[in-house]
Amino acid sequence: MKIIYHGHAAFSLITGDFHLIIDPFLNGNPSAKIKAEDVHPSHILLTHGHSDHLGDALELAAANQALIIAPTELANWCAAKGVQSHGMYMGRMKFPFGCCLMVPAFHGSSIKDNGQTLYGGLACGYVLELEGKIIYHAGDTGIFGDMANLSRRAKIDCALLPIGGNYTMDPIDALAAAKMIGAALTIPMHYNTFPIIRQDPHAFVDRLGKQGLAGQVLEPEKSIEL
Ligand code: NI
Ligand code: MN
Description:
Blueprint: E1 2-7, E2 10-14, E3 19-22, E4 43-45, H1 51-54, H2 57-64, E5 67-71, H3 72-80, E6 85-88, E7 92-95, E8 98-104, E9 110-113, E10 116-119, E11 124-130, E12 133-137, E13 158-162, H4 171-181, E14 185-189, H5 201-210, E15 223-225
Parallel strand pairs: 3-4, 4-5, 5-6, 12-13, 13-14
Antiparallel strand pairs: 1-2, 1-15, 2-3, 7-8, 8-11, 9-10, 11-12
């Protein structure tokens, strides 16, 4: 399985048969190197409705007949816009690509729609099981103690953690989170897209290393194989 970072919180997870994209903020994302027209997902996973996560989800879903998976209120809003969606909450669901466990994230969720701000339900993260690998995308969140339980079903192979601060964990909290999660590999996200979330991801990865944890900075459009 291949994990591609698109910048901010956007990642593609590519298996033999499926292309999942999480939080597809591409057009208008200052750190993205590709356009929404260049990706062809089969599934689009949304952690919440903020514009830097919802991104190009509707356009991508329509252009690729891709299924949007999201917290129920956000999924219902997407469906009302005419695309396929699957609403869920903090539970586990089997999909053709594998298993999807929605997990909490301490954050808000609203949707900007024609000048109005709509309630988006709860924000979330995802623990995904694809081709026998377990990937945790934390979404936007502060640190919380139950991160220690995320690997209770299976050890997490790769954790994608926000480090930008202000809206989410900063590098100090993300380091403590990474220790609780105990993933085989931790990749930082949600930094340097905007001045308010400026951080040094390499310093974060160095600190992970000093704690005996593997980390890797992925530049936009770089990928790893799991
Ligand atoms: Ni947000
Ligand atoms: Mn965000």
